[in-house]
Amino acid sequence: MTVTLRFCGAARTVTGSSFLFETQQARLLVDCGLFQGPKTLKELNYGPFPFRPADLGAVLLTHAHIDHSGLLPKLVREGFEGRIFATRGTIDLCSYMLPDAGGIQESEVEALNRRNSARGRASVAPIYDKADAVAALTSFQPVEYEQWLDVLPGIRARYWNAGHLLGSASIEIEFLDGGAADRPLRLLVSGDIGPDSKLLENSPAAPMNFDYVLCESTYGDLDRPAISAQSRRQHLAIEVRDAYALGGALLIPAFAVERTQELIVDLLELMQRGEIPTAPIFLDSPLAIRATEVFRQHAEEIAGDIDLAGILRSPHLRFTETVNESKAIEKLTGFHIIVAASGMCDAGRIRHHLKNWLWNRKATVLLVGFQARGTLGRFLVDGVKAVRIQGEEIKVAARIRRIDEYSGHADGPELARWIAARRPIHRGLFLVHGEEDALTGLSERISERILPEAQIFRPILDDVYELATPTPTLLDVSRRRRLSPEAVVSLDWHNDMSKLILDINDEMEQAADDRARGVIIRRLRRALEDRH
Ligand SMILES: [Zn+2]
């Protein structure tokens, strides 16, 4: 018996989660996520899968976030005919999130094609459209938490609450004759793991005693101070009061599900208590509005004592469904709050609000979630002086702030504790779903103290391991890689390039006169010529 594992995504990157397991009898995919961030990664979304979709027997989905589910419509369109197993919460969220993702891709490609035709370039087709997403939904099959499920011949699985998002799961998988004598090969895929205490979620749960564990590492290098509901609200109150003092809009790019609902609960409560000034809060995201409805339907699974229905009736909260309503907010001046997706500012309505406000000193942008490298949100966190949105250069004069308390991810110590609680881990721990610093941070935190260093692996995109051997064996796949390992690990040159151009523009503008500008140009020219 052989069991191979191909890391089709989230390997030295934080997006595109996707893992392919192959035995002689069956092929199983866990997650089928969209790549986000650097252009080189995003281009993978348009290319072929590193397997034939029609050969797959089934998909197990950990949760609804697009970096885990976003390529499912493409998988189905390209011939996958099996079932996609997911919890009911995940299915309900996907039924809004996938068509929304299809819609975003249609409209982005439309805008790109307008620019392309103006420049005489060929037009491109979206990865998939809304209709593909709706079609993919019929392949979903609900599963219950903590109940064994026969997935494919010789493979069974069990879902455990990962405490990250409504419906989110860590998935326990057994390959019935892949292990040592008379024992199945046991494996756990973490999915995304939530922090220990969170407003709307239970703490993560999972069993122990595995041959292999695949663990996410998003915040592996972060050690967050302990968060209480009170300290989180205090921190938010300070940011809101500062934004109010500046007198412009407070833009909060937020993931449409869960973070948004938590934020709104806190904002309304702070207003009610008089701790922040009363002002309209625009929830400018049809998806977030629908996701809020899903949360209401799943109220009994949601931890805590939150009156979502009551909160939704607050006169301060305004829902903007249509594009016209959304555009109408742009005319507002003075302090108001806009919550819009996406959380990393790489898509969605937040982008036109940023275009409208980023240049304005009175505005504040408050980033509340993880910002992957190469996304607009990450550029803002890194303090760039100008950004490009829809082909236009926009200066960044707004105050850029960030708070981590609304994160849906465990931090380094919480991840380490989660890993420790899964022991014994007999053969190997694969650290996935993290950027370099996060992987290194988590690896250092756990090596020797929790697991011997030799048992910790940091796979690269498209690595394939044989798992049925006593220790995992890396197979030679050099001819089947989509990107060179160096390209995966190093930051995208497109990003470096746009940063460089922005810095040059900035230097030119700040130069005293045309003479000084001439000097800068001559020096740059010389640097280029030195290369030859
Ligand atoms: Zn997630």
Structural commentary:
This protein is α/β, with parallel strands linked by helices and 532 residues long. The protein contains 17 helices and 23 strands. It has helices spanning 39-42, 66-69, 72-77, 88-118, 130-136, 229-246, 259-272, 286-297, 308-312, 323-329, 350-357, 376-381, 412-420, 436-446, 485-489, 493-510, 514-530, and strands at residues 4-7, 19-22, 27-30, 58-60, 83-87, 140-143, 149-152, 155-161, 169-175, 185-189, 210-216, 250-253, 281-283, 317-319, 337-340, 364-367, 386-389, 392-395, 399-402, 425-432, 456-457, 464-466, 473-475. The strands form 4 sheets. It has an 8-stranded mixed β-sheet with strand order 6-5-4-3-2-1-22-23. It has a 7-stranded mixed β-sheet with strand order 7-8-9-10-11-20-21, covered by helices on one side. A 6-stranded parallel β-sheet has the order 14-13-15-12-16-19, sandwiched between helices. The radius of gyration is 24 Å and the shape is globular. It starts with a strand and ends with a helix. The structure holds zinc ion. Residues 63, 65, 164-165, 192 line the site of zinc ion.
Keywords:
globular; alpha/beta; 23 strands; binds zinc ion; 34% helix; 532 residues
The helix fraction, in percent, is 25-40%
Residues in β-strands, percent: 15-25%
The major β-sheet equals: 8 strands, mixed
**In which order are the strands of the major sheet placed?**
6-5-4-3-2-1-22-23
Bound molecules: zinc ion
Task: Quickly give the structural class.
Answer: alpha/beta
Could you list the spans in which at least 5 consecutive residues all have pLDDT below 50? Answer: none
Report mean pLDDT, rounded to a whole number: 90
Number of helices: 17
Give the terminus-to-terminus CA distance: 55 Å
Q: What is the C-alpha radius of gyration, as a whole number of Å? A: 24 Å
What's the β-strand tally?
A: 23
Q: What's the shape? A: globular
